[in-house]
Amino acid sequence: MLYRDAGQFKDTYSADQQIFPIRQDRIGVTLLVLFAFLVVPVIGNQYWLSAILIPFLVFALAALGLNILTGYAGQLSLGTAAFMAVGGFAAYNFVLRVPGMPILVSFALAGVMAALVGIVFGLPSLRIKGFYLAVATLAAQFFVVWALTKFGWFSNFSSSGVISAQTVVILGYPFDTPVRKYLLVLAIVALMALAAKNMVRSSVGRAWMAVRDMDVAAGVIGIRLMHTKLLAFAVSSFYCGVAGALYTYCYIGTVEPEAFNIELSFRVLFMIIIGGVGSILGSFLGAAFITLLPIFLNTYAEPLAHALGLQLPPGIVSNLELIIFGALIIFFLIVEPLGLARMWQITKEKMRLWPFPH
Amino acid sequence: MQFFFEVLIGGLLAGVMYSLVALGFVLIYKASGVFNFAQGAMVFFAALTFVSLVERGFSIWVAFLITFAAMVVIAIATERVVLRPLVNQAQITLFMATIGLTFVLEGLSQLFWGSQPHGLELGIEDMPLEWLSANTGINVSQFDLFAALVAGILVAGLALFFQKTRIGRALRAVADDHQAALAVGIPLQQIWAIVWTVAGFVALVSGLLWGARNGVQFALTFTALKALPVLILGGFESVAGAIIGGLIIGASEKLAEIYIPQFLNAPLSEAWGVSVNLAGLEIWFPYALALAFLLIRPEGLFGEKHIDRV
Amino acid sequence: MQDRSTSQRLSFHGALETFEVDFSGLTFSAAAEVDAFYDEIDRQLAASGRRWYFLVVYTDCIIAPEAWDSFAARGKSCNVNHSLGSVRVGASAQTRESIRQDAGRGSFRANMYDTREQAMQAIAELRRQRPGPAAAADDTFLRVDNVSLRFGGVKAITGVSFEIKRGEISSIIGPNGAGKSSMLNVINGVYHPQEGTITFLGRKRHDMDTHEAAAQGIARTFQNIALFKGMSVLDNLMTGRNLKMHCNFLQQALYLGPARREELEHRRKIEEVIDFLEIEHIRKTPVGRLPYGLQKRVELGRALAAEPTLLLLDEPMAGMNVEEKQDMCRFILDVNDQFGTTILLIEHDMGVVMDISTYVVVLDYGKKIGEGTPDDVRSDPVVISAYLGATH
């Protein structure tokens, strides 16, 4: 009843092509954004900000990057963590070695470095398709981590390969409390998500989807396959690189190359499978889900077991996590291959009709 | 020169181990068109179950049978819960479902049996073969030779199975097109249950051999990843390819690990002014090799060429 | 009624390669008046010795129903013989209405602009995309010379030659496996022939590259629908215009400004195609959910969205019932009529082929076994025994 679009006629094409054509959506999203920027910093406690919201945002950004490459352009990638690693270490080295480098610029340059690496490892996509391509990205994953560990220059010759991120200072203003870091990450992620949405609804996004759906037909229409694929790799890696920089500077603080391992890559892949491939919203939903699930399990597994009268052996929670993850992935692939985003869409469609059945 | 042969043969025999895992992949891919990422988890599960049973006092043969029974149960469960609902979906969807399956199996394994590493004794020692070492000075592990023998027998059996039997033909039809096979009356569900059971058997054998060599621990699940370059080289659909690919990967990996640092550490250190140690490159070398190969021949040595008809 | 003479209403703009006809304020109440006007137009165009872009101003022009048929026929022949493309400015409501009612057409929106400036811009856009007209010599539209195509040991096409004239609807027919789709693929650049040459718009070359073919104005549909199943109808049509969109990805990430303008401009053009094909009601539907007949129509729309010079249709009526086929025929004929697009189609339905084509090429086992007008081909004994069947 509330979610009607009756009476909302679009009489210009620009109105029809808005990101949120339905007025209720616009109101809802505006409120959400205001809430995130104005209310959360005030009411959020340290734990929620540092351990839940910031990683959620950082991973949402990485998931966005992967979604652009795998969900929109159809190039399966198992090397997300490697590109994040490039971003993290590049940002560190730029700040370290270039005196007076503003930190936002170093984040952007870190993204560019990651984009360059992405292009190199994306070159095989011109010849190889499907999960053969996944092998190329696996090569990237293992090689990058090995290189960052082996060549001490990247970690400034620290003995264990660990780097400690410097404090984020923008225009003399330090971003060292959870609230400030949260706002910084939120601003960056929000802007990049908007940019991603704009790209995806323009001709570049359509070119990506065309290549994903049927690349021979796309070639026939005049879409340049090489440009399109490499651009997908570049943009996607840029996003993952910035995510890696944010991961290093605003979340973990000290990081070593092995932290960006293949398990992390799989984690981001699961985010987009569960959240929804080929959907900007899906990246956020998936990131929220995967970030919150372990916390949920950790908090509620014990009390639940006690309530049921079961004795939980130690280490069970992490195994449970694995099993539930796996089961959920299979569940989503069977029931709703387009993930939470599609479920949300269906819900909205039902809300438009409610209380009528059709 | 002796050392070179030792490394080479050691690499070839390690490659045989990779081939065994790759074999499980090829089986399932040939028969259902599914790239079963969970093969590694199956190896792990089989090895862990076997070892835990033996440690609880069961004899080797009984433990083997019980474990095999467990693999059969897993195969049937997988077919019912994962494969049947996803009939005729895109390959990539099935692949991701097997990733989910991997996690479930890993979690279950550790849930039942705990997560400590175990040693595994099969009665064959990892010692150099006496007469070879005495006559030629080359040390080759008895165990590696035993593994190669087992692999050989397994491969011969499977190759015969696919080429000569009716079921083998049916399997190849299923791999091509699920719906068409159904339409022709091939009992898809039974076939898949059979195939996954056979793959489970291969996983069990691989698990025993790998576990005996490297110990039974969580890292065993990553053997799946090791098998990928093998499959790329050999093609996803060829049993012979899995063997030969495994040999090539195993040999080149070991040779590269030993000789590339030997030749490049010093010159690079000098050129860059820092101490360079390229050790550990065997972690990515097989992938790079597979990648280079893909660029020249996207279908692998023995794979089938795909033609895109418009 | 006529304050200016006929010849004062006709002007040539050499630098813009445009021929302007000013019908504004005129009333045509009889066929004779139409003929008189068009005779003068034809005379001047023939004297010029070359083709032009047409700019026709219809503001406040009234065409009586009696004169309409003559007007349409003369206009069409003028287009076919002398034009490189045409744009129209304005049409009085009465004209539009009378056209709609009497000619029974659903839309007459194509290439119509509100002001002369917009029309001139459209011509500039057309000119930008087409290679300049050859000063003299090769006026060939499309010619295929002695093309041979092999896949390993399989000979798909052997020594086939034929020529297609601008503005015509031509067909390739033949039994399955004769190499018809392969022939289209060669023209389009998907396959590269081992021997032979292709001449398109006067330029001769050994083979085409798909991107080049698309840039030169060749668009096509496929036998098995090659739509992008993950996208909506609107998005599929918009991909047809990808070559014409020039903003880079950074501008598109920003969206405000040039990217937005470009997006809206092309959306406007796409809506014309949507109107033309009567698919307004399914604009936002994901293509994978549409019934087969509508998918074929959307695929045609994607090809039309590119404003092609040459349209290659691979079995556009396959799998359709009688009504759907009639609709498709109507669209194909309209495309040829209104936009002057040259069409080359592969089709098995002989009724359709004979009705709408002016020229037919017959292939069998990769070789050409007959060509000519539909009547010629229908009575050719070689063709009959290979394909049509004896009792025809």
Name the structural class of chain B: mainly alpha
Task: State the strand order across the main sheet of chain C.
Answer: 13-14-15-10-16-17
Report the strand count of chain C: 17
State the share of residues found in helices of chain B, binned by percent.
over 70%
CATH architecture of the largest domain in chain C: 3-Layer(aba) Sandwich
Instruction: Indicate the CATH topology of chain B.
Output: ABC transporter involved in vitamin B12 uptake, BtuC
Largest sheet of chain C: 6 strands, mixed
What CATH architecture label of chain B applies?
Orthogonal Bundle
* Biggest sheet descriptor of chain B: none
State the distance separating the first and last CA atoms of chain C. Answer: 56 Å
CATH class of the largest domain in chain C: Alpha Beta
Low-confidence stretches of chain B: none
Helix content of chain C: 40-55%
Would you give an account of this structure?
The complex is a heterotrimer of chains A (358), B (310) and C (392). With 358 residues, chain A is mainly alpha-helical. Chain A has a single domain, classed as ABC transporter involved in vitamin B12 uptake, BtuC (Orthogonal Bundle). By secondary structure, chain B is mostly helical. Chain B has one domain: ABC transporter involved in vitamin B12 uptake, BtuC. Chain B has twelve helices and no strands. The relative contact order of chain B is 0.18. By secondary structure, chain C is of the alpha/beta class. In chain C, a hairpin with a 4-residue loop joins β1 and β2. The longest helix of chain C has 20 residues. Chain C is globular and about 65 Å long. The N and C termini of chain C lie far apart (56 Å). At the A-B interface, α6, α9, α11 and α13 of A face α4, α10 and α12 of B.
Can you summarize this structure?
The complex is a heterotrimer of chains A (358), B (310) and C (392). Chain A is mostly helical and 358 residues long.
